[in-house]
């Protein structure tokens, strides 16, 4: 990573080395089995918590480390992706979208009870925003929460929720006011809350190892003290959370592309056709050169936005651009990798086959490609 010393220092390298060893020891020997099983052991959360991985980027007083060091988080995220399973990384990392609102806006007593349990891996948290009636249009969500004394009565449903089956805590977007973004709030819902239930585990094209589910709220009684932030101010919290999620997805996309490129180069060096390695043919050399160029541009642009975020600058337009560009590059490079590997690229035993499937969700999750373009255009004054 010497080319990126502008962004990463020696402490980040220590984080990278530590996470890479964890992946090599605890994940890589089992990942193919876990992918086929469409799950991974809950124990992995405890191991990642004990190794300090889940706490990277979070307050030390709540069990975290490297608080405010965004590039420590980037380094850890990149190394986790070297397991080759976007689903496992998404599942293990569901705290990164479910927990920040709790840390920033929940009442102190709730924050101090929930956060250390999640960072240790003892408990799992999920973010629940998407509904059957719509995903990216957060301002139109329908799950209703009505104040009833010291509680909210919640009715509605959510879908496509990562870690939905086995989460213990859910950061849930609900409608407490009128129509539109001004009537949205966030509530922390615990799994054993009466009226709350988890539906079927959903089967997906990719991200097999992640647990994705439907959630149902049937007159679910949630303590009013579980309100995150102010009532009817949840939309702003969700939008702030989305910026970090979009950075994480761009990083995941770039690492998906990186792995696809590495597999392609290795295959081009070893696979022979017409008496020589296929990497010696100009058509393949140029294809690999173009793949490397696209990835380099995408990664540098993503890092640039992360640096701005770390400096406290607003990058609403640019992070949307980074997500779109990175996911386009991941789509292109995984497609090319399958083509370079030929028949082997189509086999389940091939890493690029999984990368190809897993890449497809990246331009959908965290706000679709089309929504990103809407945000970009709005920031341009259109």
Largest sheet: 4 strands, mixed
Pairing-aware structural class of the strands and helices? alpha+beta
* N-to-C SSE string, H for helix and E for strand: HHHHHHHHEEEEEEEEHEEHHHH
The shape is globular
- Percent strand equals 15-25%
Spatial order of the strands in the main sheet?
1-4-5-8
How helix-rich are the residues, as a percent range?
A: 40-55%
Number of helical segments?
13
Q: Are there runs of 5+ residues with pLDDT below 50, and where? A: none
Radius of gyration: 21 Å
Distance between the termini: 39 Å
Total number of strands: 10
Give a written overview of the molecule:
With 382 residues, the protein is of the alpha+beta class. 48% of the residues lie in helices and 15% in strands. The chain has 13 helices and ten strands. The strands form three sheets. A four-stranded mixed β-sheet has the order 1-4-5-8. A hairpin with a 2-residue loop joins strand 9 and strand 10. Helix 11 packs antiparallel against helix 12. The radius of gyration is 21 Å and the shape is globular. The two termini are 39 Å apart. The mean pLDDT is 95.
